[in-house]
Specification:
Helices cover 25% and strands 27% of the residues. The strands form 7 sheets. The protein has a 6-stranded mixed sheet. Strands 1-8-6-3 form a 4-stranded antiparallel sheet, with no helix packed on it. The termini are far apart. 35% of the residues are buried.
């Protein structure tokens, strides 16, 4: 009996996915567990395995197509079977397999690795492989607990005597001015055409989606940016204090400048709830909690995961959660629902580590505003009456939707962020 292959729902917020690469051709034999195709959302890539054995009777989409989730992508069955009822447009929601609606979110891309010593194939996830290499663990001695015996990260972590080492090696490294790291490498792009002095390269699907989101943001909102500088002496003192305590083992978390800025922003949002909103055209959505978005550079592009209920956390708890989110975003195992712009109520984008003195961040609609954090540089300031000196000053750039906030409100909010940074206590 012919069965449809459905585009999985990758998180409740994802409505469409882009078809990456077909691993099987129409008419080719397929075994249960074989990789059929890859697909991606705007932030992560996945691969779909065959849940049935048979012949790939039909493929309804081509590589690069944007496909609604839960749509029929292909059909597997026996040679000669009819598949017309499964063509997109013929199926109804009632005909879609109920198990697809309740299935777990697909896991991050897995792959099979040949072990030449034995000729056998070992199914292992990229994260587990990287961990095993770091720890010096022999993957041939591991038993996989993942689907169909695949070795996953948990299997490597359970290796005796290696737990302390993996925790130490995977622990986020201290970052002085921001939790965001530079992009490690660019996504490969195909050369479409070339001349003596140029190449025309295709734009990756991820870049197309990010570009579309940025264009829509600027098209559908009245964005304006205010710039202000904050005296960074207090926040630098706190950073030095936490670094010393972390080195001495007095605290378990290495609190960064970026963590302290986010802590100050949360306090300012509590005093100016009109900035902790979503602008919905003819109405505003006011939030009782702060769900903080953090811009993170990754190999696949910019991601902005949301930290839910950030206002409930202490400074060390906030630091830990932000570093976990950033790490998950870079590793590709972030919950897709946390990447939806609607998941966050306000976003912080820190470019201070790059030496940027001023910039204009773009709002993640429907959020009302976004804060850009710039580098700390010494500037002249009156220390006391008639006495001037050079003081470390942190640049702050607040972009807001003028449809949602008046200039006065935005200015007072930015001034409160400055005040919180200059007088922060934890």
């Amino acid at each position: 009996m012919a069965v449809p292959v459905v585009m999985p729902r990758q998180g409740q917020s994802v409505e469409t996915c882009i078809l990456g690469q077909w691993y099987k051709s129409v008419g080719e034999e397929v075994n249960e567990g074989d990789l059929l195709f890859s697909y991606e959302t705007d932030k992560a890539s996945f691969e779909e395995e065959a849940k049935e054995s048979g012949i790939l009777l039909a493929a309804f989409f081509e590589e690069g197509d944007e496909i609604p989730v839960l749509s029929n992508v292909a059909v597997i069955g026996q040679k000669g079977e009819s598949f017309d009822e499964f063509k997109p447009g013929n199926e109804t929601s009632a005909e879609k397999p109920t198990e697809i609606l309740n299935e777990e979110a697909p896991k991050v891309i897995e792959f099979e690795m040949e072990v030449h010593e034995t000729g056998s194939r070992i199914r292992i996830s990229p994260l587990a492989k990287k961990m095993a290499e770091t720890m010096g663990v022999d993957i041939q001695a591991l038993s996989g607990s993942g689907p169909r015996g695949r070795i996953i990260a948990r299997d490597v972590e359970e290796v005796p005597k290696a737990a302390e080492k993996v925790v130490r090696e995977l622990k986020p490294q201290p970052v002085e001015k921001t939790a965001v790291k530079p992009v490690a490498k660019q996504v490969a792009a195909a050369v479409v055409s070339s001349g003596d002095d140029f190449e025309v390269r295709s734009i990756p699907n991820i870049r197309k989606l990010i570009a579309s989101a940025m264009h829509q943001s600027l098209q559908n909102s009245a964005q304006l940016t205010h710039h202000m500088s904050a005296d960074a002496r207090q926040i630098m003192r706190l950073r030095k204090k936490f670094k010393k305590e972390f080195t001495e083992g007095a605290v378990s978390q290495n609190v960064t400048i970026n963590d302290l800025v986010c802590f100050a922003v949360i306090r300012a949002l509590e005093k100016f709830p009109q900035a902790n909103t979503h602008y919905l055209g003819d109405k505003m959505k006011w939030f009782k909690k702060v769900h903080l978005g953090l811009a993170v550079d990754t190999e696949r592009g910019l991601m902005v995961p949301a930290l839910k209920n950030a206002d409930d956390l202490s400074i060390t708890g906030l630091s830990y959660q932000l570093q976990q989110l950033a790490s998950q975003a870079r590793n590709g195992n972030i919950n897709p629902d946390l990447l939806n712009p609607q998941a966050a109520t306000f976003t912080v984008s820190n470019l201070g580590n790059y030496g940027v003195e001023m910039f204009t961040p773009v709002i993640n609609l429907p959020q009302t505003a976004i804060l850009g954090v710039c580098t700390i540089i010494p500037r002249p300031k009156e220390i006391e009456e008639g006495v001037y000196g050079f003081v470390p000053m942190m640049g702050l750039s607040l972009t807001y939707d003028h449809q949602a906030l008046d200039g006065g409100e935005a200015t007072l909010f930015l001034a409160e962020i400055k005040n919180q940074i200059e007088n922060l206590t934890v």
